[in-house]
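thread: overnight batch results

M.L. [08:02]
morning all. the overnight job finished for the chain we discussed friday. pasting input first so we're all looking at the same thing
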Amino acid sequence: MNFSVTVLGSSSALPTSSRFPTAHLLNVNERFFLIDCGEGTQIQLRKHKARFSKINHIFISHLHGDHYYGLFGLLSSFSLLGRKNSLHIYSHPDLKDILNFQFKYYPLEFETVFHFHPEEMCGIIYEDKELIVKAFKLKHRIPSCGFVFAEKQKQRNLKKDMIQYYRLNIKDILSIKMGEDYVDEDGKMIPNKVLTFPAPMPRSYAFCSDTAFDPSIVEIIKNVDLIYHESTFAEDMKQRAYETGHSTARQAAGIAKLASAKKLLIGHFSARYKDLAIFETEARQIFENSHIVNEGETYFIENKLEKL
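M.L. [08:03]
and the structure it wrote out:
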């Protein structure tokens, strides 16, 4: 079962000849979620052969242009391609007015459904039978949100031979899959772990867009499998990072370490840096499993079985 992130853009406000502004595509079992939509996102989607029709949910962290200017072209293309199903957009409320004005003279052929970030520190903004998405506040110059995408715990897998051996009925099967032990006709208790195979552990991805160093988010993203944290500057421009509401590579690594994350991806690099190796070097001094992102690369979170 797939749970992966493809990085479509990793530059900061200024795109470069090799890097686009921020956009990530999350694949959860072939259901696709677009996270931020900087200029050129649809070009990157085409280049990396993403399936446009599978994108039904778009999450926008904040309203600086390098995180949403790509929406105008993407939504226009959706309309030209004959899209009919609704598109759900999760954003700051002002985005609705911006898009409505843009498409006043060229109406879209499909419905856009807006969902707005909660005002509280952490809140669920999307949920289905497999996934929960929470938004949380980041520390930036304008209102900005990060997102945690977390799988729900799956049921344990019942061993087929046990169904016949114990003559289990539907009620028994459902109870056992929920983790209950089984009591047979003679009153003997059969432990659940004898009857089932372990279920995969839930996987999670945290997207921390533009933000200054802010340890208050750690509890929200605790123990995530994969975290993306902006790293606009190296340590040589730590003061500039503070002034602009951004982070350095070392600060991003510090958040990953405090959160006990499994792996850190860093991006949103300032265009002033030609050699990005310094970002990875500085981050790994704090958190060893740190990696600069490469555009077009897909980062997989593998299934792991729950512990007995």
